[in-house]
Amino acid sequence: MSIHKELLDILACPRCKGKLVLKPAGDGLACAACKVVYPVKDNIPVMLSEQAVPKKDWTGSK
To answer: Can you give the residue range of the structural domain that contains 36?
Structure first.
């Protein structure tokens, strides 16, 4: 996974505008406030609210 730090610094959760943290496997961006993970597919963050997965259901990339 190669999301540049500069990109990660400017990305925000589409729901709450909070900070996102890259998951250790690099396959998702997590929002602690909303308790969701936005998937990263082909090194591109999918920042759509309807694509967010609740943290408790996150299993990583499929």
So the answer is: 5-57
Q: If we measure between CA atoms, which residue out of 50, 57, 41 comes closest to residue 14?
A: 50
Total count of domains within the chain: 1
In terms of DSSP bridges, do strands 20-22 and 28-31 run parallel, antiparallel, or are they unpaired?
A: antiparallel
- Could you tell me the pTM of the whole model? 0.89
CATH code for position 11: 2.20.25.10
Q: Tell whether 13 is covered by a domain.
A: yes
pLDDT block averages, 10 residues each, the chain of length 62: 82 96 93 96 92 93 58
Report the C-alpha gap between 8 and 24 in whole angstroms: 14
